[in-house]
Amino acid sequence: MLEGRPSYAEGHYQCGVCLSHVGQFEEAFVHFSTSAELDASRADAPLGMGICLLSLKRPEEALDAFRTCLEKSPDLEAALLGKAVALQLSWEMDEALEIYRAVLSGTPL
What is the pLDDT of residue 107? Predict the structure, then answer.
């Protein structure tokens, strides 16, 4: 897949989206990761990586991906919620609750 355009960041991202929708999270992660490497300005690729890592039950690694995403797009609600889920799964409840409360109240972190 994408053999003719291996450096096409958007193509890798979209392929990752499709694969994640059908539950192929390992392969989707590879495409999101490639997209992020090809275009470091993207916030959506690390978001996809984080979602895949949560689905693969790897919350600590997911947390890193969500943090990268939030560095690029600090107000991206999906990344904030993903970070909170990763924290919760890592038993860092206080920080997770802080994020959930901020999102629910519309208060910036």
Answer: 82
> From CA 72, how far away is CA 55, in angstroms rounded?
22
- Give the pLDDT confidence score for residue 109 in this predicted structure: 75
DSSP 5: -
Per the CB < 8 A criterion, the answer to whether 51 and 24 are in contact is no
Put simply, whether the predicted model's pTM sits higher than 0.85 gets the answer yes
Q: For 85, what's the count of Cα atoms within 13 Å in the CB-facing half-sphere?
A: 20
> What is the rounded CA–CA span in Å between residue 46 and residue 49?
5
Query: Vertex 57, ends 52 and 61: CA angle to 5°?
Result: 70
Residue 84: both structure tokens together? 């909170």
Could you tell me which CATH class the domain 9-105 is placed in? mainly alpha
- pLDDT bucket at 6, cuts 50 / 70 / 90: low
CB burial of residue 69 (10 Å; 0-12, 13-18, 19+): buried
* Encoded tokens for 54: 């949560």
CA distance 22 to 19: 5
